[in-house]
Design brief:
single chain; alpha/beta; 22 helices
């Protein structure tokens, strides 16, 4: 068969080139996982992601040994993962191991077997190192985090203070899900008492009262997923899903108290995770009681992403992960990345002319929305708004909370569909505040005007000037692009002007 792609002189334009792919095999006490990232960057994207729940940590607290069955299952998975890493062309392979490997008597023999398969040294993390990489995962995935990060694995729980990029006090506890289940003899109420006792003298937890608690780990994400479905929350994205502390406390107490199989919507949690769910809830109850945070915020990033962040140079660490992800999407999916960049400056000018006040965070989100404003252009025109909204609201972005996601999605939706909500379901709209919704409509109107005026090509909009007067808005075009004036351009200028109670006028500079 002839190569059906031979008319193209480049390979896989939907992929970004650079320093990668990069593979990480994470050998935890409950799961063994391979993630192959497209490249080493501030906004890493997974090319491949697979896990096996080998349960290496099961029984280690009682016997001090990794079971032969768990070792066999883990090594089988690691052989596949090494082969898959090679298949995807990974330039580097990093292998991490945590509590089960470091605490078991036969851990060194297991590590040697893994090194023989993978052909690279394994980094067996100490409790302190595991806490550090977990904290780095939060730093990499949140915009200016401040509070306590907790990573609950199968064998241990790491708690560490975070303030921006500064890592404070931290400690490892024998409170991983498997370890806690076994020590509590499978009794969640007993597990809660163990957690309370372990945390009772950790004074620095209370020092962070009123700040967020960042929850890392598969068991806690399963709790978040259960809460999402029980409450009918409209967005099924776990990263930066936040629950007020009091509500999280009551929810977790209920999970500890109830039979797991009787919980509403329990089917959304995988069966292997269900048995550990009440012990994850018990640990979270004890943490909330001791720390008294403002809210519990769930993270999709942890040790693996913390390692990648650690490997970046200092300049790349300072980049905004949300902005970088938007830059990548603009490059991969828009008709003109240069035009998307021009939109940032142009909308900045117009927001000043319109005297629309913005916080620094709102300015940041507006810039990202500009970069994302053309990612749906290949869809049918009638569905570009909905498709863009779905892509943005469910994308693997980090560094943005759920109201921020809603703002981004709404702004681009309005850019395509106009300033009507007929085709817009209420769910995502409910996530944004009244203030963000209003600014999304203003930005959507500006983007509609810009894209139609320029044909979504660079070199036009920055030649124009916008003025606001008592009767409305005046758009001035230089004579060199005067022929771009038209009925549709005026119509979209009027849409924007009506948001401020006026009319639009186009002026040609001669």
């Amino acid at each position: 068969m002839a190569d059906i792609f031979d008319e193209f002189d480049y390979a896989a334009p939907g992929r970004l080139r650079g320093n990668g792919p990069v593979s990480v095999i994470d050998i935890g006490s409950n799961s063994v996982r391979l993630v192959v990232y497209e490249r080493l960057s501030r906004a890493p994207t997974a090319l491949f992601n697979e896990k096996v729940l080998a349960g290496l940590g099961r029984g280690v607290g009682q016997t001090g040994q990794l079971s032969s069955e768990a070792v066999e299952q883990a090594l089988l998975a690691i052989r596949r993962f090494k082969c898959m890493s090679d298949q995807l062309g990974a330039e580097r392979l990093h292998v991490l191991a945590t509590a089960a490997a470091r605490e078991s008597e036969n851990g060194p023999a297991f590590v040697a077997s893994v090194e023989e398969i993978c052909g690279v040294p394994i980094e067996v993390l100490s409790g302190k190192e595991e806490a550090y990489y977990s904290a780095m995962g939060i730093v990499s995935g949140f915009h200016n985090p401040a509070g306590i990060a907790g990573d609950m694995g199968g064998g241990s729980l790491e708690l560490v203070e975070i303030d921006g990029e500064t890592i404070g006090k931290g400690k490892t506890f024998p409170l991983g899900g498997i370890r806690l289940q076994e020590d509590a003899q499978a009794e969640p109420s007993r597990g809660l008492k163990i957690c309370r006792d372990e945390l009772s003298d950790v004074s620095w937890l209370r020092n962070n009262q009123g700040k967020p608690f960042y929850a890392v780990g598969g068991t806690w994400r399963s709790l978040a997923r259960l809460h999402v479905h029980q409450t009918g929350y409209p967005l099924h994205v776990m990263h930066e899903y936040a629950i007020p502390a009091e509500e999280a406390l009551e929810f977790c107490r209920m999970v500890v108290r109830r039979n797991t199989d009787s919980l509403e919507s329990i089917e959304v949690v995988s069966k292997p995770r269900r048995q550990l769910l009440p012990f994850g809830a018990a640990a979270l109850v004890a943490i909330i009681e001791r720390m008294q945070p403002s809210k519990v915020v769930f993270s999709a990033l942890g040790v693996r992403e913390g390692l990648l962040y650690h490997l970046l140079n200092e300049a790349d660490k300072q980049k905004d992960p949300l902005f970088e992800a938007a830059v990548e999407l603009a490059f991969l999916r828009s008709r003109s990345p240069q035009h998307m960049q021009e939109l940032i400056e142009w909308t900045d000018r117009i927001f000043r002319v319109l005297d629309v006040d913005e916080t620094e965070e709102e300015k940041r989100l507006r810039a990202v929305a500009c970069l994302l404003s053309d990612i749906g252009w290949r869809a049918h025109p009638d569905y570009r708004g909905e498709q863009s909204l779905n892509i943005i609201s469910n994308a693997g972005f980090v560094g943005v909370d759920h109201p921020g996601r809603a703002y981004l999605g709404l702004a681009v939706f309005y850019r395509h569909r106009g300033l009507v909500d007929d085709a817009l379901g209420p769910n995502v709209r409910e996530l944004a505040t009244t203030r963000l919704k209003e600014r999304a409509r203003i930005l959507g109107a500006i983007l509609r005007l810009a894209h139609h005026l320029s044909g979504t090509m660079p070199g036009v909009i920055l030649q124009t000037k916008m003025d606001a007067g008592p009767d409305g808005l005046r758009l001035t075009l230089p004579g060199s692009i005067a022929d771009l004036e038209g009925e549709r351009v005026l119509k979209r200028l009027n849409q924007l002007a009506r948001l401020f109670g006026g009319q639009g006028e186009i002026h040609i500079l001669t």
